[in-house]
Design brief:
The complex is a heterodimer. By secondary structure, chain A is of the alpha/beta class. Chain A has helices spanning about 5-10, 50, 55-65, 80-90, 120-130, 170-185, 190-200, 280-285, 290-305, 325-335, 355-360, 380-385, 390-405, 420-440, 470-485, 495-505, 515-520, 535-545, 550-555, 575-585, 605-610, and strands at about 40-45, 70-75, 105-110, 145, 165, 205, 210-215, 220-225, 235, 265, 270, 290, 310-315, 345, 370-375, 410-415, 445-455, 490-495, 570. In chain A, strand 16 (about 410-415), helix 14 and strand 17 form a beta-alpha-beta unit. The termini of chain A are far apart. Classes of the chains: A alpha/beta, B alpha+beta.
Chain lengths: ~650, ~240
């Protein structure tokens, strides 16, 4: 092993934020690499500040290092200043924990949270001295793996990744370690093809080179496994009980400021609110709550060990956690021993009075800003997307918040949603203005920021067939909203429609997009989610050079008959359920949350023989959307219920 | 720093090795967390958002090492000074070590205004990696002290100024040949101040600092010079040599 630190150290006096590259955070591990064990380099292909807080990476880092047959280190994409110095001095991409060259690991595994990091994956591989194209790799090259939500459509990255993990990684990494370890100890018998073939037999692993794609013009005719034992459809992997995985146990405490710089405790995984635009909610079903007592312990011990003064209770809709009230007040009240106050943050809050109640408990003192996500500007459109918040809900929540001392509201919206008309779009400005009006009754300082992002249809959602708005159309809508918010105290912020277009190309792209990604990377397009590095022309030129039509991939409405590039990957959701839900969307029909209402058989629980793990049989105060209940008080809706020790009430 | 039943303490700490790449602010946050990890009774400010009463001395630039950093912190009740350095060191990032603590006398003046001089150990080498001798550096130092003014460009908040650092330079001499370049020691005043990088620049535009280590800070009062741990102390406890 060659430690690169002596060659990296002299470069750090010349780069921005050199502490990005030193490692040694509290919680960092210095694993010993044994020749018979499998070494994993877990890479987040963005800057250290963005990548370090990633919980998925930290969970796998711990699970792998607990194994006798594995060792794991971390890596983050070097910023362009260090990259230039590294290239000029032939310093390869390195791990953070022992500054070992990336190319010396058995596995390089990337976390793909979103599409715009794809070109950084190629850059990290190239900096490692590993061929960027999977087909060019030799037996002794690392196995290149990718996981994360974006891998639910793996095809655009199929040329570069040897094996994708689809779904929860906790168990899969163990299975993969065993396969790769056995192959390595056998002297790599059968070569790369043998180990990749074996990996493709693990549930939740997709090896693109085991499949052939046949086209009919632009359409896909067939995706065919190359061996009879390779599954025709790859199922996602799901851990049945989050309570069995209390990770991270030693959350990393960075030495420099990072995004989400606080203790993070995942209180549940999965969400069945059923928002039709939300890929995360569709692909992570069913809901698996962490037992309240375990969540409590993780918060208490985490705060004690890290010294953080803030904890985020993370999930896709944290106010839905059965024990949320108890958990929050326990943290707030149990602070006598701690130095000063502990802050609690709840990302992804619902819009209702219950939420404001929780928020006022949390922010007893500094009540500055509160964020809600109505997502669409009209009730009609919110029925289409199944985000069933009435204007009354929103105004009541906002009134409650302003009356209790908050001054700034932030509202998140999507534009370019299916069936959206200009009236719906303008409804955003209307809602935001009314929020300011309500606030003015309580304080002159009342303000409201409306943050709008262009909608990108995602695979495995009911909107996967929808043709997204062109960047010109999104730009027009942004312009319309700018005009409509010139007066009335509303601040408008928006996501670059050109970036939305590029996300769209990658989100629902097929294998042919791989060459486009490679061209963009070769022309210098890295850190594409950073506006200072993003140039849409690189993508437009690369698409043209490959003879691919942007509209065909993005704005075209897809038919129910055509084979989508990700149809051989499944999150358990039946295609006819998704199609039915798409039709319901067009008919403006909402769908209730199946935690508290009878099962509508989306396919996940029945196919995988798993169920919701929910500690309470009742919808939380605030209610279950679409059930016609009074949303302000909540109600007792029976739930089909998993009997599980430690998970609460059984029936 | 006043307060009923308060227990004001000055800490001296070292920051060496990889951790030198963190900023002054990052170091402050690391101490913040270390106090919480050790559940020390921090005195809090009044008001809407109570903050611990902590104040740092002179900032240490990113990339510079030190064996003489200081900070003042106010506890709400007495803490054991004997064990405090080891407890904090264990809770701090690797490379940050608390080497001494002192109970501050009442009405001790603020650290930042008190320190009058800083001593540095600098290792300088040629930019082009050619050899440089101790004699040559010695001659250059002598020449520096014969000048009346040493103007340098200083960028502050985006604006460029020309600053004379000659009055800040009080003493400089070669120690020995180091592993890469020449090791020298420099004493720089704080009012007006000069940065170690500026000192290297006036020594020669062909030189660069390979290593910068702050070795001491001094408080001079009535012609008497003392290190900050002693200067305002009611009681001092040094960490045992590790």
């Amino acid at each position: 092993m060659t430690a690169l630190w002596p060659r990296i150290e002299p470069l750090l006096d010349r780069v921005e934020k050199p502490a990005r590259y030193i490692g040694m955070e509290r919680g960092a591990q210095v694993p010993i690499h044994r020749p018979d064990a499998v070494s994993w380099l877990l890479v987040y292909p963005d800057t250290y500040e963005v990548g370090l807080p990633n919980q998925g990476l930290q969970i796998l880092y711990e699970i792998l290092n607990e194994r006798d047959d594995a060792a794991a280190e971390r890596g983050y994409a070097p910023w362009t200043d260090l990259e230039a110095l590294m290239r000029s001095r032939s310093v390869p991409f390195f791990s953070l924990d022992t500054h070992k060259p990336a190319g010396e690991f058995d596995v390089i595994a990337f976390g793909l949270a979103a599409e715009l990091v794809y070109t950084n994956v190629l850059n990290c591989l190239d900096l490692s001295g590993v061929p960027v194209r999977a087909e060019a790799r030799r037996d002794e090259d690392p196995i290149v793996v990718a996981g994360g939500h974006a891998t639910f459509n793996p095809e655009p990255m199929a040329d570069f990744i040897d094996a994708f993990v689809i779904g929860d990684g906790e168990e899969v990494v163990g299975d993969m370690t065993e396969v790769i370890g056995a192959w390595k100890r056998s002297g790599r018998v059968g070569g790369r093809e043998a180990v990749l073939h074996d990996l493709s037999l693990i549930m939740g692993v997709y090896v693109p080179s085991m499949y052939e794609v046949e086209y009919d013009g632009m359409a896909i005719r067939e995706v065919r496994p190359r061996y009879p034992d390779v599954p025709a459809t790859v199922d996602k992997r799901t851990i049945a009980d989050l309570g069995e995985w209390p990770y991270p146990k030693n959350q990393l405490v960075p030495l420099i400021e990072v995004v989400h710089d606080r203790l993070n405790v995942e209180i549940f995984r999965g969400c069945t609110r059923g928002c039709r635009f939300c890929q995360a909610g569709m692909i992570t079903r069913p809901v698996r709550e962490r037992p309240l007592e375990q969540a409590r312990t993780m918060v208490a011990e985490g705060l004690k060990r890290t010294g953080y003064d803030e904890v985020a209770l993370t999930s896709l809709s944290s106010a839905d956690f059965s024990g949320i009230g108890e958990l929050v007040s326990g943290i707030i009240d149990g602070q006598e021993e701690a130095c000063g106050n502990v802050g609690v943050s709840l990302p992804s809050l619902r819009v209702d009075a219950f939420t404001v109640g929780i928020a006022s408990e949390i922010q007893r003192i500094r009540r500055t800003g509160l964020t809600f996500a109505p997502e669409a500007g009209s009730w009609r459109l919110r029925q289409v997307i199944n985000k069933l918040i009435t204007e009354e809900d929103l105004y009541a929540a906002v009134d409650g918040a302003f009356s209790q001392g908050w001054r700034r509201m932030k509202l998140y919206f999507l534009i370019g949603l299916p069936t959206e008309m200009d009236d719906d779009t303008l409804g955003i400005a209307e809602l935001a203005k009314n929020v300011v009006e309500i606030g003015k009754r309580y304080t002159k300082a009342a303000s409201c920021t409306a943050s709008v992002g262009g909608f990108v249809p995602k695979p495995h959602t009911p909107f996967q067939w929808f043709g997204q708005n062109s960047s010109e159309e999104l730009q027009r809508k942004v312009g319309m909203l700018r005009d409509a918010t010139r007066k009335g105290g509303v601040k408008l912020s928006w996501h670059d429609p050109k970036a939305t277009m590029v996300e769209g190309i990658n989100s629902r792209g097929d294998r042919r997009i791989g060459k486009v990604i490679e061209r963009v990377w070769r022309s210098g397009g890295v850190f594409q989610e950073w506006s200072e590095h993003f140039k849409v022309d690189r993508w437009i030129e690369a698409m043209a050079a490959e003879g691919l039509d942007i509209d065909w991939y993005t704005t075209r409405h897809r038919t129910g008959e055509e084979i989508q590039p990700w149809d051989h990957i499944t999150a358990g959701l039946h295609k006819d359920f998704l199609w039915q839900d798409w039709q319901s969307a067009l008919a403006e029909h909402g769908l209730p949350d199946c935690r508290w209402t009878p099962c509508y058989d989306c396919g996940v629980c029945t196919d995988y023989a798993i169920e919701h793990v929910v500690a309470s049989p009742f919808a939380p105060a605030g209610g279950s959307q679409g059930t016609g209940q009074d949303l302000s008080i909540g109600g007792a809706v029976p739930v089909r219920f998993l009997s599980k020790p430690g998970a609460g009430v059984a029936r | 720093m006043r307060g009923e039943g308060a227990f004001p303490v000055r800490l001296r700490f070292a920051e060496r090795g990889k951790v030198r790449f963190i900023s002054h602010r990052d170091a402050a946050r690391a101490f913040d967390r270390a106090f919480r990890i050790e559940v020390l009774p921090l005195a809090l400010s009044e008001g809407f958002s109570p903050r611990p009463k902590v104040s740092f001395g002179l900032a240490l630039s990113v990339g510079h090492e030190s064996i003489a950093e200081y900070m003042d912190v106010r506890f709400s009740e007495p803490v054991d000074l004997e064990t405090l350095p080891a407890r904090l060191t264990a809770a701090l990032p690797e490379g940050i070590e608390v080497t001494g603590v002192a109970l501050l006398a009442d009405r001790a003046p603020a650290l930042q205004e008190s320190v009058t001089a800083v001593e540095w150990e600098l290792e300088v080498a040629k930019m082009d990696e050619s050899e440089v001798s101790a004699e040559e550096i010695s001659l250059r130092i002598e020449a520096l002290f014969e000048t009346k003014s040493l103007p340098v460009n200083r960028i502050r908040k985006g604006r460029e100024d020309i600053v004379d650092i000659r009055p800040a330079l009080t003493r400089m001499s070669v120690i020995e040949s180091g592993s890469v370049g020449i090791l020298l020691t420099a004493e720089i005043a704080t009012q007006p101040a000069a940065r170690p990088s500026e000192v290297v620049t006036v020594l020669g535009e062909d030189l660069r600092a390979v290593r910068v280590l702050r070795t001491a800070q001094w408080i001079e009062r009535d012609g008497n010079r003392q290190e900050p741990l002693i200067a305002d102390a009611a009681r001092v406890s040094e960490a045992r040599a590790s």
